[in-house]
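Researcher: Please translate sequence to structure tokens.
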Amino acid sequence: MSFRTKQQIDYWVGGVLLLLLFPLVRLLALVLRRDHSLARKRGCVVIKLVGAGSLFLAMPSMQAIRRGFPPGRFFLVGTRAVISLAEPFSWFDECWLIDDSNLLRLMASTTRVLYNVVRHADHLIDLEVHSRLTTVFSLLTLVRNRIGFVDEIMFWRRGFYTHTTWFNTHGPAYAFYDLLARWFGIEQIPVKSFHAEFRRHIEAIPPPDRLELPTSYVAIGHGCSDFAKERQLLPDEWARVLRPLTLMGYEFVFLGGPADASLANGTIAALGRGHNLCGRLTLAQSARVIAGATKFYGIDSLLLHLARSLGGEVISFWGPTDPATRLRPLARQERIVFSRMPCAPCVHVNESPPCRGRRDCMAHAVNAITAGSTAAEHPTTTIDGWRMEHDAADVKSMQVTYV
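Model: Translation complete:
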């Protein structure tokens, strides 16, 4: 299924189910009067279906919570992309897969996971902020304590979760993940020790067999998930950004999943050099390659979060998303190139970007760094926007200039 189809299923099917379940939920709350104290520690399950990068941001808090549960009683419910991040590092005792490749597998795998949660957990942490179906899933588990986020749009979640934490879409996501630990009496989040342990784990991984890496190379994280592809740079844009480094003798190693291979090939063709390792390495092996790189260039993605935690020099490009809300502050060598157009950020704020995928913001970011700037703030003398006519399938840019 395409990501857009999944969004529609979540919105409509999830909305109808919540509407039908609400009277029953309120009635049972009045009749059963269950004890929702967080003192019970039979087991805890964490839900994260979209965005492995967000899971990585949440892991210092989640690992702090995990230490309060008996061994073997901390679980993850996630899609394949999310579980592929968690499994190599043993952050959870078990990972339970939700297979969303088609509707039949989605229903079958969800039923299996529901059975597992009912058997093993009395706490549930829903890391999804906007999903309706994860709210339905949380209810169907019958778990005693259900912890989730609410914001100005998803305020109705208060009627379905036993414990809710306020989430601000325009605020730092990592801060709200960290605040979840307060429900369990945890006041200090060991961020530094988590990242230090992650680096030790990655450095202990041997380089992949039969992989010949250049002596000095720049690692490129050019791809992202199907959600908000507007974050990506085009091949010719990457070529413009990286071409000055070719004069310094650098080689380029492109990392990502199988779906990112085509974009890497296009960039290598435009640049005239590069090594495409997309789909050839595990996530942990990709992190090992990043650890050996001289620099890392990337966009808002999981690989960027991994690169920042590994301590090397990092250059990242932003537009549809805001680095202030996505990046945990770390003492690292870093350059952030962000085009703060009036419509940015649009991801995590709108159902779809107002530019319909034109991504002028990313083009502004590329123009800024190729011109020698370290920031891509849009000029205050000119304001760009978008106009949509009722009978037009596309949008057109509009602009005003201050005099």
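Researcher: Any highlights?
Model: The chain is about 40% helix and 15% strand.
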